[in-house]
């Protein structure tokens, strides 16, 4: 059996994960690998609450993986170097990750693809970045025209979700660093990290009798109403 890395970035979930699914299609043992990148942790866009949410999500993912016969492997350092070491030390055949679109991520991934077997899958967005342009080929700057083109361009039938795999075969001999200990999110932040919490919030938003998804267009800009899904943190890291 070959060995594939599922390189986890913003996809801290097992359900509907195209990178994990692609890795499993290789009939391979899977290494669920999260690399703690010092450059991202030191970014001006990252604060204590975001880091606490991230590491809490990693702990939740580790528990979910253990329930499916797997383990979360943690490394700390520059991603390209860490992955190169893994490929050599463990004879890795493939690296799968969901494509990211930030400027940093695109430069990073292009450099890694130049010398390592990194395969990028969809999954971060519903449709690929740049799929919806104006007739002149330029990106939209106003939301409503963009929305209309989005709806007329793509099939609006339900998306075929990928089920959580029953088992994720993972080697037991590969060492993992510990998830860093950080203060938990304060009680004033009502967002428990993890995929399970995200699923509960989505179900509640879809089933809620009042101010649910059917009323989103009217209630989303009413701060006095509970009219949104409250899923934003999970879209960023789930």
Protein architecture, described:
This protein has 238 residues and is an alpha/beta fold. The chain folds into 2 domains: 2-180, HUPs (Rossmann fold, 3-Layer(aba) Sandwich); 191-238, no CATH class. The chain is 36% helix and 12% strand. The chain has a 5-stranded parallel beta sheet with strand order 3-2-1-4-5, sandwiched between helices. Strand 4 (94-98), helix 5 and strand 5 form a beta-alpha-beta unit. The radius of gyration is 19 Å and the shape is globular. It starts with a strand and ends with a helix.
What's the architecture of the largest domain, going by CATH?
3-Layer(aba) Sandwich
In CATH terms, what is the fold-level topology of the largest domain? Rossmann fold
Class derived from helix and strand content: alpha/beta
Task: Describe the main β-sheet briefly.
Answer: 5 strands, parallel
> Which percent bin holds the helix content?
25-40%
Q: Low-confidence stretches at least 5 residues in length (pLDDT < 50)?
A: none
Number of domains: 2
- In which order are the strands of the major sheet placed? 3-2-1-4-5
List keywords for this structure.
238 residues, alpha/beta, Rossmann fold, 5-stranded parallel β-sheet, 9 helices, 5 strands, 36% helix, 12% strand, globular
What is the compact description of this entry?
This protein is α/β, with parallel strands linked by helices.
List the helices and strands and how they pair.
Elements (H helix, E strand, L loop, with lengths): L1 E7 L9 H7 L3 E9 L1 H4 L6 H19 L6 E4 L2 H12 L3 E5 L4 H11 L4 E4 L21 H11 L41 H13 L8 H4 L12 H5 L2
Parallel strand pairs: 1-2, 1-4, 2-3, 4-5
């Amino acid at each position: 059996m070959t060995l594939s890395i599922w390189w986890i970035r913003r996809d801290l979930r097992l359900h509907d994960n195209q990178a994990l699914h692609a890795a499993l299609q290789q009939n391979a043992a899977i290494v669920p690998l999260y690399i703690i990148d010092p450059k991202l942790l030191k970014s001006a866009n990252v604060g204590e609450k975001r880091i606490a949410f991230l590491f809490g999500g990693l702990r939740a993912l580790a528990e979910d993986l253990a329930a499916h016969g797997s383990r979360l492997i943690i490394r700390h350092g520059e991603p390209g170097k860490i992955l190169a070491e893994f490929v050599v030390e463990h004879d890795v055949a493939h690296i799968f990750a969901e494509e990211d679109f930030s400027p940093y991520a695109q430069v990073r991934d292009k450099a890694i693809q130049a010398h390592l077997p990194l395969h990028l899958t969809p999954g971060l967005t519903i449709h690929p970045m740049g799929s919806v342009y104006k007739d002149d080929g330029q990106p939209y700057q106003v939301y409503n025209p963009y929305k209309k083109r989005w709806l007329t361009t793509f099939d609006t039938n339900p998306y075929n979700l990928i089920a959580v795999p029953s088992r994720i075969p993972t080697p037991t001999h590969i060492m993992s660093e510990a998830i860093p200990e950080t203060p938990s999110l304060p009680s004033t932040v009502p967002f428990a990290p993890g995929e399970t919490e995200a699923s509960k919030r989505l179900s509640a938003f879809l089933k809620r009798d009042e101010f649910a998804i059917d009323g989103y267009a009217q209630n989303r800009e009413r701060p006095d109403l509970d009219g949104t899904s409250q899923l934003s943190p999970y879209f960023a890291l789930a």
